[in-house]
Amino acid sequence: MAAEPVIRLRDVTKHYGEGGSRTQVLRGVSLDIEPGEFVSLVGQSGSGKSTLLNIIGGLDLPDDGDVEVLGHDYNKASEREKAKLRNGPIGFVFQAFNLLDHLTCLGNVTLASQFSSNATKVEERGKEALRRVGLADFAQRRPSELSGGQKQRVAIARALFGSPKLLLCDEPTGNLDSETGREVIEFFTELNEKEHVTLLIVTHERRVSSVAKRVIAMKDGHIVETADEDHPALKAGPA
Fold first, then answer.
1. What does DSSP assign to residue 157?
2. What is the separation of C-alpha 237 from the centre of its chain, rounded to a whole number of angstroms?
């Protein structure tokens, strides 16, 4: 029996504002992403790709349509259930690192489990997540002591802390120089190929989309096609 899609969207719509300021962002989006895929989502600014990513992650609600992620029907799931998904099988990496300066790297990585009754296990898992991104010796450093690339690696370690099956990334190399960005992309590729984590990455950068196994282009709230490397959407600006 074939595996169920990790992500299944049917006729998803979304708008912001009302009356004359109403803007339709998603217009009947349907999409399946299978387990173990590495998908890049591209399109011009305002095409709806970041909104779509936030809906998949349960950070935003659609106006209409069906959203199923990792077997969970979002139309039936409570906010508590979606929060549990975000703290476990779904990981997030954003362009803004979103690290708390008053916490150590380890504290940032383990923040979602700070009230766990098993502090020793939490610390061990946090250190392992830092080891996986090459920052084993940085557990007690503060974000202010890190380079941009190191901060993004801490953010990735935080996403990996819950052992995610699905990693959602929004412009994860947007604040990085070319060499650091290349290292992060290599890590994502290794994570996908060796650990079979499903990746969905919103990007406007060819260096990211070129290593994805599937590129999906969006325009004006629609998925227009699966794009090849020369698709104009790969030259578009960020969302």
1. H
2. 18
